[in-house]
Amino acid sequence: MSRLLIAGASSLLACAALAQPQQQQPPNPEQMKQIMQATMGAMVSVMGPMTDAVIDAQVNAAARPETAEKIAAFKKNLYDALLKKGFNAQQALQIVISTAPPAAAPSAK
């Protein structure tokens, strides 16, 4: 029994020693460069397929008739609201033309 207690106490002390925070030196510039290169390399292999999936999802959403209906409603509501706020028809139309519909990602102009 006493051997079991001693073994348990030794295990607890070993775990406590491992749990103590280790003083680590910050990486030097060369190590940081290697870390960044490894991180970017790992990300690149995932970014291509993710980008393809996002574009596919956006194209599929844009191809649905209900999407066109929603965009048309957005543009019409915007135009009507601009007229109500005092813009003339030409100003309102110009603002509607230059306003991108809501999107998950910013549009490229």
Task: Show the helix and strand layout.
Blueprint: H1 2-19, H2 29-63, H3 65-84, H4 89-98
Helix pairs in contact: 3-4
**Major sheet characteristics:** none
Net shape? elongated
**How far apart lie the N and C ends?**
77 Å
Question: Which whole number gives the mean pLDDT?
Answer: 81
Write a concise synopsis of the structure shown:
The chain has 109 residues and is mainly α. The protein is built from four helices and no strands. The relative contact order is 0.06.
Structure explained in plain terms:
It is elongated, with a radius of gyration of 30 Å. With 109 residues, the chain is an all-alpha fold. The longest helix has 35 residues. The chain contains 4 helices and no strands.
Descriptive tags:
mainly alpha, about 75% helix, about 110 residues, 4 helices, about 0% strand
